[in-house]
UniProtKB/TrEMBL annotation:
Keywords: ATP-binding, Nucleotide-binding
UniProt key word DNA damage: no
Entry's Gene Ontology molecular function annotations: ATP binding
CDD domains with a match to the protein in the record: TrwB_TraG_TraD_VirD4 (cd01127)
The protein, known as: ATP-binding protein
Annotated ranges, domain Helicase HerA central: 128-288
Pfam family, one: DUF87
Organism: Stutzerimonas marianensis
InterPro entries tied to this protein: HerA-like, HerA_central, P-loop_NTPase
Length: 599
């Protein structure tokens, strides 16, 4: 039995009107040792219909001023509430969905806390808890198996608590399920602001933190100061295209020729030096000499740190009338005699000893351009922008990437901190990391997947934005296509993405529409609210209306893993486990300063 609070007086489709007893307006009631919540907005009522209890959620309340009743000697207005059925209890337990509707004069009863918990805990792990329901104050477990087998979105304005929710979700997962997931799953965090480099989420022996920085030179003895790429992965067309933003029609085919040369001759000792010597000879003795090749040869000699060749090239000029190179005023013919006499002995000193993969890449790009110019394959103005990007980017890329065939030690959790990276690197690296993990996982996982990989992108608007005006449309389309492919196709390979953002409206609609489960904190921007309202089919109107007024740490939880939307107050993590995203305490900061000055 329960506490009777009223009866049904109107049924308009799926909208019910109930007449409520006066005494039921109390906030909390106790009956036979059970705790009940009174009748108010977003509370749950049970309407008995035969052997079933139809569960309804209260959505509105009003007084019928046309009707009055006598209560304890005084005249009162009739109190009515509007409710919507959400499911029913029968002998098998709770079933979500509208199958049965009540009839007029059916009695309405309050639901106990245990009954309400059974609605939300039905398919959940009762131990996997990150907080309690806001209004009912009931700690409800989340269905973690269905939740982490999906793409997750965590949205909320700055200061709304979304970072704490993200950290709490994965901290509870690692604390409770570590023996189950070790060796079967990997978790990768793309951390733009350096929030997860400390004790957050997992213990140090289960965690690798890459502290990338373009501000200082890396510590070569520290393997976590640079992200490791395999040799074969570095010399890959997709990787090169990403790193240097190659255009598809001219620059990508050019890079493909560079990589083909490396694949054919890269493993042969001395092949790159011989390639440079052959290219120099072909340039001097070509039938039609291009003036741009002289500057390119100087770049090659400078990169090889060969002062002899640089000094020799200062005596070489291009003669416009004859279309030839001259050495100390004498023309160099196509027969190679003059070249062999005056230039070849110096060119033979070219060597690549001590050059890393980045320097070798610059050499190969310059040598390939010289070769293509001699053959008439390309126009220098089409490739020159790519060449400049390669040379300018390598100074930063060398600080954050290492190329080696020695595989790194793999841990359960990998955090890649890009807090100290410049904007150019921040734009390119996340895409490289996503492709790195996606391709390696897709090519090695079984069917169906026997391992999973989970990519967590905090501050996702940095790389998933559809609104950027600071980059070309071609690059933006390419960037979004790569992530859209992962989020659309990754699930079948066992790869899942969690994104957290303060501006969901800035993120590509294709990506947001592919998310399955949502933790929505306070959002006040109309564009963000419009996106949420039109993208999330499982969000009811009452929950949506709560979003602009949610308090810190409170969020609406909805999606395919949840039968009903819930409003949850997420528990705050201990200070040592919190992400490094706390607001500065000006009262403490300034008061300390004043105290120091007073002393």
């Amino acid at each position: 039995m329960s506490i009777r609070v009223g009866e049904v007086i109107a049924v308009h489709g799926t909208k019910l009107v109930l007449k409520i007893d006066e005494q039921s307006s109390k906030e909390t009631l106790f009956y036979e040792g059970e705790k009940y919540k009174g009748v108010s907005i977003r509370e749950y009522l049970s309407i008995q219909r035969g052997f079933r209890d139809i569960v309804c959620m209260v959505e509105g309340e009003f007084l019928d001023e046309s009707r009055t009743e006598m209560h304890e000697g005084r005249q009162t207005f009739v109190r009515k509430v509007e409710a919507r059925p959400i499911g029913y209890f029968d002998s098998s337990g709770f079933t979500q969905g509208i199958k049965y509707l009540p009839m007029i004069q059916d009695a309405a009863y309050l639901l106990s806390e245990e009954k309400i918990r059974s609605i939300f805990d039905r398919k959940a792990d009762s131990d996997f808890k990150i907080g309690s329901m806001l209004k009912e104050e009931i700690a409800v477990g989340l269905p973690w198996k269905r939740l982490f087998n999906s793409h997750i979105g965590i949205f909320g304005n700055t200061g709304s608590g979304k970072s704490n929710t993200l950290a709490k979700l994965y901290t509870v997962l690692f604390d409770q399920k570590l023996p189950l997931i070790t060796g079967k799953s990997r978790f990768i965090i793309l951390d733009f602001n350096g929030e997860y480099g400390g004790e957050q989420l997992a213990a140090a022996d289960h965690k690798t933190v890459y502290q990338l920085s373009t501000l200082t030179n890396p510590d070569l003895t520290d393997p976590t100061s640079r992200f490791p790429l395999a040799l074969r992965e570095f010399w890959q067309l997709e990787t090169m295209s990403l790193l240097f933003q190659a255009t598809p029609n001219t620059q990508k085919p050019f890079l493909n020729r560079v990589i083909s040369g490396w694949e054919r001759y890269g493993a042969i000792p001395g092949s790159l030096a011989n390639y440079a010597k052959w290219t120099f000879k072909a340039s001097f003795c070509a039938g039609e000499v291009k003036p741009a090749t002289l500057d390119l040869m100087r770049t090659v000699a400078r990169r090889m740190e060969n002062q002899q060749v640089l000094d020799m090239l200062t005596n070489v000029t291009w003669h416009r009338t004859g279309g030839r190179f001259t050495y100390n005023g004498a023309f160099i013919g196509t027969d190679g005699a003059q070249y062999a006499m005056h230039i070849a002995p110096t060119v033979e000193t070219l060597d690549v000893v001590g050059l890393d993969e980045f320097d070798q890449l610059v050499l190969r790009v310059n040598l390939q351009l010289i070769s293509d110019l001699n053959s008439g394959y390309v126009q220098v103005e089409h490739i020159q922008p790519l060449l400049k990007r390669v040379e300018s980017s390598l100074a930063s890329l060398r600080k954050v990437l290492s190329v080696s065939d020695v595989p790194p030690e793999e841990h359960l959790l990998t955090v890649i901190s890009m807090r100290r990276c410049n904007n150019e690197v921040k734009k390119v690296l996340p895409l490289l990391f996503a492709k790195h993990y996606y391709n390696s996982h897709k090519n090695t996982v079984a069917n169906p997947p026997n391992r999973t990989i989970h990519l967590i992108v905090d501050e996702a608007h940095n790389i998933l934005s559809d609104q950027s005006a600071r980059e070309s449309e071609t690059w933006k389309d390419y960037r979004l296509e790569q992530f859209e492919e992962i989020i659309k196709e990754g699930r079948k390979f066992g790869m899942f993405i969690t994104i957290a953002s303060q501006r969901p409206a800035d993120i590509s609609p294709t990506i947001v529409s592919q998310l399955h489960n949502f933790f929505i904190h306070r959002l006040v921007n109309d564009r963000d609210l419009y996106l949420v309202d039109n993208t999330i089919s499982t969000l009811d109107a009452l929950s949506r209306n709560l979003i602009p007024g949610l308090s810190q740490g409170c969020c609406v939880v909805t999606g395919t893993a949840f039968e009903l939307p819930m409003v949850i107050q997420v528990d705050r993590l201990p200070s040592s486990k919190q992400p490094a995203s706390e607001d500065v305490d000006l009262e403490k900061l300034w008061s300390d300063d004043l105290a120091v000055e007073a002393e």
